[in-house]
Amino acid sequence: MEPGDLDGERDDNPPETEPAHPLRAALTRRSALLGMGAVAGFAAVDVGGFAYAGGWLRPDVLTPPRFADRFEHVYGRHDGFRRNHAKGLSATGSFVSSGVGAAICKAAVFQPGTVPLVGRFSLGGGLPDQADKPDTIRGLGLLFQLPNGQQWRTAMVNVPVFPDSTPQGFYERMLASKPLPETGKPDSHKMAAFLDRHPETVAAMKVIKQSPPSAGFADSTFYGLNAFWFTNSAGATVPVRWSVIPQDAGGAGAPTPSIGKDYLFDDLIRTLAQRPLNWRLVLIVGEPGDPTNDATKPWPQSRRSIDAGTIAITAVQTEEAGNARDVNFDPLVLPDGIFPSDDPLPAARSAVYARSFTRRAEEPKSPSEVNVAKVLS
C-alpha cells in the first residue's frame, strides 16, 4: 500500500446517481487512453499529475517522490524492482462472471461471460530476494481486460483490514518499523510512540491477528480493503468492498519453510503446473453508517455479499518484459460503473505506484528471485 493526503469533507449521504468526484474527469481520460493504446505492453499511466490536479495530494505534507525515497531508505535501493511488494511472480488467467454483480454495477466485467486477466503474486516489502515467511504480507494484483477496451486493476492483500487509515500514518509506521542494524528489529521505543499516536492501528492489528495466514498462496483470501462506489445501469449507487476467496483451501498441501528460501512461490509454481487455481470474487455491499473513508475498520459480517464469479489462475511466469513485471496495479484504473470513495489511500497509492513505475522503468533490470523454469526443472 502507499501514500498522500486528502482535502475535503466526507459526505455521509451516499449519492443516488453516479457520484461527483475530483478525479472523475481524470479517470475518464485515463480509461480512454487505456482503451486506445496503453493496453499494449500493459504500459502504466503516470497518474501523479492527475492526483495533484485533483487536489488529492498536498506536496507540502507528503509527495510521491518523498514516499518512494522512504521505501528505498528502509529497504535499500534495488534497481528495476517495485519499491513495495518487490518479490513477485507473474500470472495469467480469466474471470468468469456469474452476471449477478450487474445488479449493483454496470461495469462490463460483471456482465455474464469471460474476460482475460493478468495477475501478480507477491510478498510485501521492498526486498526482491527476501526469504519467504508465513507471516509476511502476501499480495495479489489483478488486471481485468474488458471487451470494451477498459480495464479494472486492483491490488489486494491477505489481511482483512489495513493497519493505517491515512497515507501519513502509513508513512510514519514505515519509519518506525525500520530494522536497526545491530538487532535486525525495529526500535521498540519508536514503535511504541507511533502506536500511542495511532490507536486506529492498534485496533486494526487486533483484527488482523484474528485472521492468521493460511499455508500458502493457493489457499489465501485476498482483500481489496478500500471502499469504492458501484453504480448500476439504473443509476443506483452503493458502497462496496471486495475480496477473493479460495476454492482450493486446504487442497494443495501445506508448504513448510524447510523446503527453501522461496517455498511459498515454489509451491504455487508446482501446484499450477498440475491444475488451475480458483477464487470466488465476492462483493460486500455497505449500508448507511459503514465507514467508506477508513480501511482500518471492518464492516459487519452481516452485510450483503454477492458472488460475482470465478477467478481462475491457469499459469505463472517468471517476471520479465511484457508480463506483470511491467504492470502498474494502479487502484484508480477503473471501468465505467466503479468510482473512488472518500478513502484517502487509493489516490495516494495511485500516485506513488506511478512514481515507482517511472523509476524502475528507467533502471537496469536484474533477474527475478523466483524462477519458474528452475523450480520445474
Describe the structure.
With 377 residues, the chain is α+β, with helices and mostly antiparallel strands. It has 9 helices and 10 strands. It has helices at residues 24-38, 48-53, 64-75, 167-176, 188-197, 199-209, 263-272, 344-361, 372-376, and strands spanning 87-97, 113-123, 138-145, 151-157, 222-223, 228-231, 237-246, 277-285, 305-317, 338-340. Strands 1, 2, 3, 4, 5, 6, 7, 8, 9 and 10 form a 10-stranded antiparallel sheet that branches. Helix 3 (64-75) packs across helix 8 (344-361). The two termini are 34 Å apart. Mean pLDDT is 83; it is low at 1-60.
Spatial gap, N to C terminus: 34 Å
| Structural class based on helices, strands and sheet pairing | alpha+beta
SSE run: HHHEEEEHHHEEEHEEEHH
The dominant shape is globular
The number of distinct β-strands equals 10
Helix content: 25-40%
Report the portion of residues in β strands.
15-25%
Q: Mind describing the biggest β-sheet?
A: 10 strands, antiparallel
Number of helices, counting only DSSP H or I runs of 4 residues or more? 9
Work out the radius of gyration. 20 Å
Low-confidence stretches: 1-60
What does the average pLDDT come to? 83
Give keywords.
disordered N terminus, globular, 377 residues, alpha+beta, 9 helices
Task: Annotate the secondary structure layout.
Layout: H1 24-38, H2 48-53, H3 64-75, E1 87-97, E2 113-123, E3 138-145, E4 151-157, H4 167-176, H5 188-197, H6 199-209, E5 222-223, E6 228-231, E7 237-246, H7 263-272, E8 277-285, E9 305-317, E10 338-340, H8 344-361, H9 372-376
Antiparallel strand pairs: 1-2, 1-9, 2-3, 3-4, 5-7, 6-7, 6-10, 7-8, 8-9
Helix pairs in contact: 3-8
